[in-house]
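User: Predict the structure for this protein chain, please.
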Amino acid sequence: MDGAGHPPAGSAGRLVGREYDLGLIREFVDEARGSGGALLLSGDPGVGKTALLDAAAAYGRDVGMRVVRAAGVEFESTVGFAGLHQVLHPLLAGLGRLAEPYRGALSVALGLAQGAPSDQLLVSNAALTLLVQAAGERPLLVVVDDLPWLDRASAVVLGIVARRLNGSRVGLLGAYRTEEGTFFERGGLPGHHVRPLDATAAAVLIRDRFPALAPRVRERLLAEAQGNPLALLELPVALPGTGHTAARVPEVLPLSRRLQEVFASRVAALPAPTRSLLLYAALDGTGDLRALAAAGGDPAGVGDLAPAERAGLVHVDDGTGRLEFRHPLTRSAVVELSTSGRRREVHRALAEFRADRPERRAWHLAQATVEPSEDVAGLLEQVARDMVRRGDAGGAVAGLLRAAELSPRGYDRSRRIAEAAYLGADLTGDLRDVPRLLEEAHKADGGRAGPLVAAVAAAHHMLLSGEGDLGTAHRLLVGAIEMQHRPYDAADTAVLEALYNLTWVCHAGERAEVWEPVRRAFGRLKPAVPGLLALSLDTMADPARAGRPALERLDALLASLDRERDPVRVIRAAVTSLHVDRLAQCRTALRRVLREGRESGSVTLEIQALVFLGRDCFAAGEWDELERQADRGRRLGEAHSYQLMSAEFRYQQALVAAARGDGAAVRTLTDEIVLWARPRGMNFLLSSASHARALAALGRGRFEDAYRHAHAVSPAGELASHVPAALQVLMDLVEAAVRTGRLTEAAAHVAAVRDAGVAAISPRLAMIVHASEALVAADDAAIGLFEEALAVPGTERWPFELARVRLAHGERLRRAKSTAEARVHLGAALDAFESLGARPWAARAGNELRATGLPVGPAGAGGPASLTPQQREIALLAAAGLTNKQIAERLFLSPRTVSTHLHQLFPKLGVTSRAALRDALGDGEET
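Assistant: Here is the predicted structure, written as structure tokens:
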């Protein structure tokens, strides 16, 4: 990119030294004509990215493509969807042909209509559909310069669109400065780094454009420019006089400083009316010539642009009628050369002209205002709330902070700063600025007790970052809620957010007394407690005693969760589902939240979705996937100061390590959890660590240790109140008590569980309760109870716990001399444990099988002897010609389980098809 906006061209107009770059870009354009795609150019300022974009656009037109151009504008970066409007404006004639949801979403996002805002994914899909529709008539090339200066909402949408262009005949070519941050998600998109010109090309360029330069001056400039085309073309212009002697070459300074000075001098040389008009253009940011003429008060004054056009600083696109600066630094120079008073005058004029665009009007008024003004602050606050609804949390934070600066009253200033802090923590995922903003909020209100939203933000930060203890967060929230006028308004979002956060704090505390303020507040909430908030109390406080009505309400809510578009509600529904075994019903919605969180850059949503998907993966036996997700979650948590979430991911990793027999990993992970959680009062994490330790000890047969750890979660003989983790260690505690001779304690615990009605909560818990009853029963009664446990429908959703029940059943059958039946259950348990990689549990099952007199081959051995009993039976039936469905019906398994076993046994037998099974098994086998 060069200062005049022209390519680094020689006298013939060709790009000098860019043969390779041009070839690559032309290949991209040719491919995009037929099958679509995206390509991002990166490079240092002035390296020639814009020149290459110009060349790409020209080539696209030459080969018959329709070209749409847009560019990020620094002063437009806080205006939601401004960049998207640039891209789609030439295509809006096709808006009426879109389906209603897409037409409505785009119309609202682009400010063409009023209505409820749509989520970013719907807007992205609508934008993609409009682009693809336009490309149906003629291949389309979208060229976007200065991606880092796009407003956040547009950057997110275009980043999503860019990933979905394959097969569309739409190409997107973008450019951004290396190492400059942008909300446009570049990960995974093809890119090309534009490098400085090599020494030969740089010499050709400067010699061709400035042939009169003295050789010594030319060499000085070549050394200083270091191949940057913009510097090569602009630095000679700044040389004093016409002699261009070596003495007149400027001293070596940072490149950006030199170029800024060059632009400022070129702008300063323009006539005053031209500079004035350029200031309107720079501050308006839309390039709309009508706006410039109207705001300037002299429609004929647009003609004053001519000197700037002749100087190559700006040009008017004949296709769109929009004014474009040749280089963004020109815009910066225009603004820097103006006085603050003049800038305020222009902003006021632009605000008057943009009266029909509330968002632009509010921002212009904010820039034009020096003294505090509640009117302007209120407008900005409303704009910020609209941005939140449209998914532009970053723009909302900026709007609230500017509104706070303009707030006359300390309370309003404090409230707006605090709300910005909360949005920063809850939506953007950046906790680092929260303490500073909260301190500013505190000072803004004269050091008095902050408003409710400040308490919410502070508690939210304490909970996630771990920079405060749980007790302080609880007192802060309770005190702020108690200060509200009674009855509390159920439509007041600040009150509801405070209560949601308070339920989280109480959940983390695992003590009955901390929930009392929640119950009081719910009683004061009128006209009624919102359904999802009510469920948070019913299923999070003491889930072991969640009544049937609450579970039925939760099931009704989850039945429509896949259609829920609000990601925060999806996460809160997952929270209420966690301890009552209903995360499976949240999986589809959570995966959508995860995808949208990644695409939109919302770290908070991504981390939260990973938490609940990880818990569900453990339940479903998808442990390899859990480990991948937990690893990413931990890295995100540590990078963004989400220490609480990082501890949760350690717990999930510790569970897998415990089940798979990695004792060293369990010790390391649980020690880290305890070390972090104990001083902060995070009791639920202490219970989580004890759960993982108990599971690891059970697998290794260290039953005394297992009892100690499980007892720490819930004392034997009583189902701990308000301790959700007590539902995770039910069978652990009973089995460990039985194995250590504590039969009285085990029986008492089973009775407590039964009396609480735990079996009615979920199929998993029904199975666990029956199995625990069997563990403490006499042999005759135990067999029937185990059969009841295994007959509970839907328990295959929890393969590890189902295998544990089969193992316990098989052990009891073997001791009762029911050898044949024992082999069936022990074999099924062994298969499941091996499939999960649960080595210590597989060893326990294998040892029990050997005790029945059945040989069990070591892991990794081949041939028929390596098969488990169930695998052998499935293989024999398959060899006899039965289908998977027929085998499943005979063995009371699912066809999918049969298919999994066949997939595992084929390599053991060295075969690749069912037809080879009979020979591999040997002629002596019978079915």
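Residues 366 and 402 are 7 Å apart (CA to CA).
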